[in-house]
Amino acid sequence: MSRCSEFSTHKSPEPNSYDEIGTILEKIVMLQKNAINQEISNERCDFGSLGSKSNDECNTRPVTIFTGDIAPWTCPISRDIDSCDVSHERTCILRIEKVINGVATFRALKEDTGKLLTTDSLITIKLTSISAIRCLKDTFVELSI
Known about the structure:
alpha+beta, three-stranded antiparallel beta sheet
């Protein structure tokens, strides 16, 4: 089963409105930090919490983003690629790393035998370019990169 088709989608209420999506992404970043640093786990949001007390030690809430097309947005899983050739291995599963000044940075995640692995591929996207996000099932991802 492809993770790119699971779970609910959050759509921005108006074209070019990034407040709702930005708020959701910021809360996901907070949850992921709380899962890693349990000292600040008393901060809560309406999405629930990640981490050992609540979710089998999950530290990541993967997302899929949409930029206006029907299909999920994809990116290369390696930054070693020297061209924009779309035939290289790509993913639609991302981990939000940070949100600053209307811009979000995502890390590409790679599926391998039912697990998600981090990659060295980081993508920065203006929040005004994102029309919808889909939150996938919370999971544990080794954060070695």
